[in-house]
Write a structure and sequence with these properties.
Chain lengths: 109, 141
Amino acid sequence: MALNTRSIGNVGVLDLHGRFDAHVAPAVIEWYGRLPAPQIVVNLVDVTFIDSSALAALAGGMKRCRQRDGDLRLCALQQPVRVIFELTRMHRAFEIFATEAEAVASFTR
Amino acid sequence: MELHSDALRLDLPAANKYLNVLGACLNAFIERIEGIAEPRVTAYNIELAVNEIFANIVAHAYGDAPGGRVDVVVMLASDPRRLLIAIRDTGIAFDPTAVAEPDLEDVQINGYGLFLARSLMDDVAYARCADGNTWQLIKHL
């Protein structure tokens, strides 16, 4: 999976596609290390599968950003991938938005 | 597990880069089973459970030793109709009792894999054999 990253203002946006699994998770964790600012939106609109290693990568990024007074927020989850968030109750830990625009705008509230 | 003639057998390298191959094969196998309620959700959940066991084997069974393999057998059994998935490796023993249940009231980074597999399947059993480890996963359909 190629990591497509963009910046919208001071928010880093990570677009993921297809499977987000234990094979892909290390590249996402490595990307966190290059971030200039701790405001991240991970756009999951094209993600069809998420496993616990990917969830760990997201949760680790969220903790890392919050330690720097930022956050990692999620948007556009497809229905099937929600199961892992619901079973682990991590949907209560992340701020999750329906659209990328809402997620990015949430950093200026 | 006695191997049915229509069972699917995969012999995969113990590496996470093959998780997509495993997932695609499982989905294709389940797609041909008729009469499953919510087939997409069922296939997704089974794929996630098997993915977690496979990734756990990759992470722990072989250490840094190269060349490890994972044998996966998938078959449909009847009376009652259920999907049986056996996952075998020849690595070091796994101790399921050493894996703590995740604290769902806290934000935990790791430790969800086995919990997820058990939550998504009807049964998840582990056995240490003479030459390795065997996991058997069952989903009633």
